[in-house]
């Protein structure tokens, strides 16, 4: 019988070396360098790969520098004997068990827990969902072996961690600016508890939720509101390193008095009322109460009678009848527009279902005079509604307030209401608004009266007046290219940021203009925050504590990108 009798065959790496006895011990000799090496395959393979003389020998033999040829590769794979002692297949190296399992370390689990929690906060999902069998099954399918956080962790430890991280991000975002505008307003939560909240508006249109205070034991007086505003001013300074230079509120009587108190105690802080609120009051004054009463009666009948609501829904192109609300801006024009859009369907339904219809409702929807009055009224209200929407944008400036009121006063459809517009303009437009309008690169103080122009110029130091005059004349040192149509479409703060870097343009004037043009004309940002409160603290989640609700709203707003997805609210 020939050949090897059982056992593991010798490693093929041995064929590259010579076997000799050295001092009575069998060794392998390198044919290139003559070094004696242990006959273990691992040592032979290491020498074969690293011996310089052997490398040169291989290079001279085949013309290439082959550092890992068939011999060294074969040394990593042990041959298995075949049926007759031959090597018919290779045995692969044993793989680690972790290659076949999902391993979730403590650190990875913490990261995953925070990601799950952020998803809950950003989409305002009930904490109990985390303990749903279907949710756990979904997570297990995505990441076997991972156990998602329970509702207590999401409502406690993870919420605190996310809240701290979001505050750090807000601090980082506000580090780019030195001054902000404070916005204050109040509302009642789902439990009818009074809340006073504050947001801060940064240059560039960014708005951030600052804090909220539940004030069940504190009357909402001007003095108490001023104290809360002062606390918010200090919080903005100490926690975020920004200086409050402006304060805007709604136009309730106590808020007007509060602004006077702040102006007396802090003359360096400019104060003004919400222009969108005042413009919405113009819309209410323009709307005749009898017309609105007729429209509301028709809409309530369709909303309160199931059959009528179903008939209306079956008509193509109809919308749900709207009702006016004092707390929702532009609700008057929305109500009238829904009547106009549904009117044809109203007439058809009255004819098709005459026995079931209310006689008064039928008369009103068939009244051609009422329909034409509503159309004329919408023509008057639409420019007001557009002005409200324009001023409640986060990118709006104080200068836009002056521009909107001037456009409305020039509108011939609103000529009968000029007295109302002038009265509300006097309440909405201050010297600060006029100064912002004066240095806005798109408006440049157009159509200001002599008194308004002088009032605006008085807001600037006298040594800046010559440059303001050159700005209006589009003269050097202001480049002519800065007054092109495209450049004027830039945000005004960006325009002045570029202009202030030009030689000869006063940096002091640029800073003053950017400060004026970074202030919002309305308190709409706080209204959007209250909408977020309404989404978070619902009737189904009325057991949320005040601190938890505040943290959830803060995280919700920050995770949405401050003002993003407001349209969904």
Short description:
By secondary structure, this protein is an alpha+beta fold. It has 25 helices and ten strands.
Sum up the structure in keywords.
569 residues; alpha+beta; Nucleotidyltransferase, domain 5; 5 domains; 5-stranded mixed sheet; 3-stranded antiparallel sheet; 25 helices; 53% helix
Topology overview:
Layout: E1 18-22, E2 25-29, E3 36-37, H1 41-50, H2 52-62, H3 70-76, E4 79-81, E5 87-90, H4 106-122, H5 133-142, H6 151-155, H7 157-174, E6 179-188, E7 194-201, E8 207-214, H8 222-240, E9 243-249, H9 253-265, E10 270-273, H10 275-286, H11 289-304, H12 306-314, H13 331-352, H14 359-366, H15 368-391, H16 398-410, H17 418-428, H18 431-439, H19 450-457, H20 465-473, H21 485-488, H22 492-499, H23 507-516, H24 524-536, H25 546-559
Parallel strand pairs: 6-9, 9-10
Antiparallel strand pairs: 1-2, 2-3, 4-5, 6-7, 7-8
Helix pairs in contact: 1-3, 4-7, 7-25, 8-9, 10-15, 10-17, 11-12, 11-13, 13-14, 13-15, 15-16, 16-17, 16-18, 18-19, 22-23, 24-25
Strand content: 5-15%
Spatial separation of the terminal alpha carbons: 90 Å
Number of strands: 10
| Silhouette | extended
Number of domains: 5
CATH topology assignment of the largest domain: Nucleotidyltransferase, domain 5
- For the largest beta sheet, what order do the strands appear in spatially? 8-7-6-9-10
Specify the CATH architecture of the largest domain.
2-Layer Sandwich
Provide the structure class. alpha+beta
Number of continuous helical runs: 25
Radius of gyration: 38 Å
CATH class designation of the largest domain = Alpha Beta
